[in-house]
Each structure stands twice: as structure tokens, then as C-alpha cells.
């Protein structure tokens, strides 16, 4: 063989080897394996498109559920040792484990329904993950001492549930709750006489509509009144946003009443994987606001009414704000409890939408403004065109950390801290308005106040917004 042929053969071999190497390198292997979440007390086992999620606490490791990955989150990136999963606005971080901890492989079946064991798992989960003991002034060790002595192997399910409810009440946190079998819930309700609320959900919904009708001549709505909108005085846009949920466009009839809409909406929504459904909610609010801003082209300012909005999806809250912003910026930071400290701060950004409004915005809030709607209020503090009117928000920002006891009872707790760019944490405090109104924090009294205003054909918050806007435009 000549030197030229040898050289050509070597070049060909190198090219082939290079091609095969690049092809193999390009085909990233699936992130199958076992991963421990940084914070949150979860271990996951990934196998192709499915995931097993283990709740791990000091004395316990149980398989919580097994589902498709998109019901847990969207795999964003991974390396040999790290994994990032997108869950709504969050990027959850994981590190690889060689195998499941021994505790996960050897569940003690005889302890599954043991009252003391379930109590210890419950207490320890809060001890390791709850983020607001200090801000609430709660000594969790003393809580253990108080209730541990009340539990024996003979403690009934009802007695155990009553103890858990007392502990939850101490925390006074709208994001802490427990779900038990219906039979136990009924026994509990019979035993504990709950205060009967004066106003039903339907009463509230009708009140929202009557307030809007008082100021908007041709009131229109999306999704059975989740969004109501129109013009006030021909040049002030009014958008009443009653939920950060149920805003996806599922092509339902526009004139459905609330109950029919609710049933038909969730019949469609539950067919989507959780992470996809979150995106459908975000896409839905973008479509709605694109249409409203285009339709209300004569608006020189906007009133965004969040006084009746109890929350939903953080991603929806940020999507709304993106329509009232003109520059990309950091909105706030969030972190999760990790041992005696917290995870690294995650920056959450505002990304202006193409169809946006950057004039004066009057944001109406109350003590009923909670959870994801407070996320919008928090993020809006970075926008100088926003003015807050009303009363202090509820003060429950953290997303809920979902857990399950060995006996199968499911519960939620707050394990995160949201902070503004000055490092202020509004958990348990709420965000106060620029122009305060004396709204009661008691739900029934608050609605009494609004109904009284309606009788006099006025709404203090909307009136004040109009007055402030008139001053600015003179």
C-alpha cells in the first residue's frame, strides 16, 4: 500500500471515529436513577417517563406516589451528578444517589398506623421544613412536649386528627392543612362546632359582580367571571381578577354559569399532565389580557382588582404582571428551608409581554388577597407605575410542600421564603397598601363593609383610584 493510500485510510478511520464519538456524545442518556432533592424532603427515582417520589423524614421513608414525570415537573437539564426539574416558576435541584437509603427499602409495616409514629413523622417534617417558626414566634420543641404526652398506642384516629388540627391552628397559616378520610372529617365536624360563615362562595361571587357593574357600563367576562373587565368613565380600564386559576382556554361556552363552568373546566383540565396544565393556565391568561388590552385601547390607566383573589398559580400571577411592565427585571427571590438554613436564592424575573400597558395601574387589595395573588403584589413593587389601594394582604406566600403520613393522610406545609429585592419577608405579615382603607380582616365583616358601600352606590377603593388618576392627569 502506498503512503498516499495509507494516509487516506487513516484519515477515513479518524473521520469515522470522530463521527461515532460525536454521535454518542450528542445522545445524552436519560436521567434515569435515584436523586435527592435539595430541600423539600423528597427522593425521586426516575425511569424513562415515570417517576417514584419518596417522602423522607428523620424516622421514615415512604413511597408517596408513582406517576408520569410531567405530573411532577418538566426535566430541564442534567449532568452525571445533578438534575434540574422545572415545576411552575421553580427550578428544583437534585443530586444523584447511588441507591435508595436503607430506610426506604425497609418500611416498618407494623408502624404504618401507629399513632405515635405518625405523630413523630408529622412533627419532624415540620421541624425540618417549615420556614416560619421564627417569624410566628413558635417554639416547635415545646409543641412536641405538649402533644407527645397525649398520644399512646390506643389513641384513636379521631383523637390523633384533633391533635394535628390543634397544632395546625397554632401555626395560623393558610397554607397548612390536612386531608383525611371523609368519615374522620365528619366525626371531627360533629365534635368541634365550627363557626358558620355568613357568606357563601356564591354570595361572594355575586358581590364581586355587583361592584363591577356599579362602575362598568358594558361589563364583560372570561371563564364565567374569573376575569371581569370594561371601561370606567370611558378612559379607565377595570379588570377584576378573581382567581389565579381556571383561566385556560378550553373552548367552553362563554355564557356558562359558575357551577357548570367549574365542572366542565376541570373535566377537561384533569386530562392534562400537571406541568402541561400549568402552562395552559399561563397561555390562557396571556390570551385573555392580549384581547382585553387591545379591546380597551382608549384606557389611559387601569384598575386591577385583586380584593377577592385567593390565589392559584404563581406563573399566572407573573404572566399578568408581564402585561403591565416595560422592562425585564428581577421581581423577587425565593428559597426553601434546608437544615438550619435555606437553599440558594432563586431569582424570579419579570418579562414584558409584547401586548402590554405601561401607564398608571391601581392595584386593589384586601385581607382576602392571598397566595399567588400576593405574588403579583410582591412583584409589582418593582414597577413604579403601580399604586396599591385597600388593606394589607393575607401574608401566605410560600408554595405548599405536599406530604403524606405513613397512615396515608395527606398534608401541606409552607417551606419557602419569598423576599423583595431589599430582603424583606412578608410571610405572616402581608404587603401593606400605599393608600390604606379600613377593611376588616374578618371575612364576614369585610363583606358587610362592601355590601354597605353598595347600598350607597359606591366602592371606596374604586372611588379612590379614580380620584388619584384624575389628580395625575390634571
Automatic annotation (TrEMBL):
Q: Which UniProt keywords apply?
A: Hydrolase
State the InterPro entries in the record. ClpP/crotonase-like_dom_sf, Tail-specific_protease, Tricorn_C1
Q: What is its EC number?
A: 3.4.-.-
Tell me where the signal peptide lies.
none
Q: Which domain of life is it from?
A: Bacteria
Q: Name one GO molecular function term.
A: hydrolase activity
Per the UniProt record, one Pfam family is Peptidase_S41
Q: Where is the Tail specific protease domain?
A: 251-438
Question: Which SUPFAM superfamilies does the entry mention?
Answer: ClpP/crotonase
Name the UniProt record assigns to this protein: S41 family peptidase
Source organism of this protein record: Aquimarina celericrescens
Phylogenetic classification of the source organism: Bacteria, Pseudomonadati, Bacteroidota, Flavobacteriia, Flavobacteriales
